[in-house]
Amino acid sequence: MGDAVEYALEIRGLTKRYGGATAVDDLSLAVPHGSFYGLVGPNGAGKTTTLSMATGLLRPDAGNALIHGIDVWQRPREAKPLIGNLADGVDLYDHLTGEQLITFSGQLFGLDRATLRSRTADLLQLLDLENAAGRLVADYSAGMTKKIALAAALVHSPRLLVLDEPFESVDPVSAANIRDILDEFARAGGTVVVSSHSMELVERMCDHVAIIAAGRVLVSGTMDHVRGPGDLETRFLELVGGRRHGEGPAWLLSS
């Protein structure tokens, strides 16, 4: 299928239940090839669960996910090399140094030593981690850990990047550098899916977006279509609700 496939990621009826609670409820979503796709929703909306099922980290109770037309659960050995995954809350091999972690990740995808050395050096420079390359990942700050995880996701040159909260705990300068890298990746023909709580960031970066709540897609499509005449945050609050107006209790406001 290759480049003839219209969607880089196609989610069909994914469902996940935990006991009596449904975290993801028959969710379907199509991410066009070459798009920069944002996924937004309140806490507990099912974003992380959806992305984990879509990338082969968490087995769904129903439904399937296709990466460039390849079912990630039926043909994982073909699908997973196409994905660069930065999953929220997944432990890294933090007993390795930063350089070793990138190298190990590349070895999992069969990269040869010369290619690995070159790409590892490039990624450490791009993400401003050269001075930390020889330190254990366990000693990294939260922001540095996020950046080294991104480097590990990029080293095998995937076609689809799936990034769950990639800017959380990252300082503004590093965040700007990461955005530049992702922009270049998308301009070169790659596809980026990013979840974030920052409406402003998603609106600025993404050309497509989906708003998710209670395990379902409320609306999806191009950024212009979803946000309408206002901004993304306004549209999000209209659909999701829950905003409380008022001054609060008198005791809180008293001096």
UniProtKB/TrEMBL annotation:
<keyword id="KW-0046">Antibiotic resistance</keyword>
<feature type="domain" description="ABC transporter">
    <location>
        <begin position="9"/>
        <end position="239"/>
    </location>
</feature>
<dbReference type="GO" id="GO:0005524">
    <property type="term" value="F:ATP binding"/>
</dbReference>
<dbReference type="InterPro" id="IPR027417">
    <property type="entry name" value="P-loop_NTPase"/>
</dbReference>
<dbReference type="InterPro" id="IPR003439">
    <property type="entry name" value="ABC_transporter-like_ATP-bd"/>
</dbReference>
<protein>
    <submittedName>
        <fullName>ABC transporter ATP-binding protein</fullName>
    </submittedName>
</protein>
<keyword id="KW-0067">ATP-binding</keyword>
<keyword id="KW-0813">Transport</keyword>
<keyword id="KW-0547">Nucleotide-binding</keyword>
<dbReference type="Pfam" id="PF00005">
    <property type="entry name" value="ABC_tran"/>
</dbReference>
<dbReference type="InterPro" id="IPR050763">
    <property type="entry name" value="ABC_transporter_ATP-binding"/>
</dbReference>
<dbReference type="InterPro" id="IPR003593">
    <property type="entry name" value="AAA+_ATPase"/>
</dbReference>
